[in-house]
Amino acid sequence: xxxxxxxxxxxxxxxxxxxxxxxxxxxxxxxxxxxxxxxxxxxxxxxxxxxxxxxxxxxxxxxxxxxxxxxxxxxxxxxxxxxxxxxxxxxxxxxxxxxxxxxxxxxxxxxxxxxxxxxxxxxxxxxxxxxxxxxxxxxxxxxxxxxxxxxxxxxxx
Length: 157
Fold this sequence. Notes:
By secondary structure, the chain is α/β, with parallel strands linked by helices. The protein has two domains: 2-34; 39-156, no CATH class. It is built from five helices and seven strands; from the N terminus they run ααβαβαββαβββ. A seven-stranded mixed β-sheet has the order 2-1-3-4-5-6-7, with helices on both faces. The longest helix has 21 residues, at 14-34.
C-alpha cells in the first residue's frame, strides 16, 4: 500500500507525505477551535428559573454556556465585582463578569472591545430583558463595572 501511495503522489516519500497530512489536520483543528463559540460559566441560584432561560438565550446567540448552581451567590458577586449592580446570576466569560440579563449584543461588544473593566451588568431583573419575557432590543440599559468599583453607562441594547 505504501508503494501505491508514493506512486499516487509523484514518488514523495511516505514519511513526508504522512507528516504533511498530519500538519494539515492539526492546522484545521486549531483553526476550528479558534472559531468556537465563546465559552462561559453562569453561576445561578439553584431555585431560579429565569437564569436558565437567559443561558438558553445566550446559547441560541452562539455562546457556549455552562450552568453552575450555587447557594452562595452574594459571595460570587463580591468575588467577581458585580455586587455594585446585582441581579440574579453572574456569567464569567472572556475574563469578564456579566451580571444579570445582559443582551448578547452587549456581551459581543464587551468581548470585542476588551475595555479595562471588571465587566458589564443589567441591574435588577427588567421584564423585557432576555430570559425575562419578550426581549425588546434597544430598551435594556447596560452598565460598565469599572476596575475601581464605579458603575458607568455602557449603552442601550
